[in-house]
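hey so i finaly got around to running the thing on CD276 antigen homolog from Chanos chanos. pasting the sequence first so u can double check i didnt mess up the copy paste, my clipboard has been acting weird all day
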Amino acid sequence: MDRRCLVVWLLVSLTDKVSSQVKVEGVKGGKAVLPCVYTKTIMERDMVTIFWRLNDEKKVYDVAAGNTVLTQQDPEFKARAQTFPEEYSKGNYSLSLRDLRVTDVGTYFCYIPPLNVKQQIQLHVEDGPEARSSSMRASLVPAVLLCLILLL
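ok and heres what it spat out for the C-alpha cells, dont ask me to read them lol
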C-alpha cells in the first residue's frame, strides 16, 4: 500500500515540474517568443536561475542569480536572444529570439534549477512570405494546366 502511495506522489509531483511540449511557429528573419512560465513559486529576482538550451546541447541563454550570463553562449545566438527580467517577478522566464534562421529549428528547453522545472518548446521556422507565395504559385501551375487540358 505504501508503494502505491509513493508512485502516485511521484506522478503528481512530476507533472507539476514538466509541462507538455509547446509548439511555436516563426518566419525566417522574424521574431519568436518561446514561452516559459511557472507561477506556482515565484523567485526573488536575485534567486532567478534559468538555462535555455537548444536540443539539450547548444547554450542559448543563461541567467544566474538574476544576472544575464553570456560567456558560454553559442555564437549562433549572440545578440539575437533575450529574456524579460521585468517579468521574472510574475514567473515569466520566456525567451525572445529575433532574426530567426532555419538553423534555429528544434526543441528548446527552459530549465529553472531552483524550482526543479524543465519546460520544452518546439520551434519551427518557415521561409519568409515571398518563398511561400512563390512555392504556392509553383504548386498551382500543374493544377491549372490540368484544368485547361480537361476543358479542351
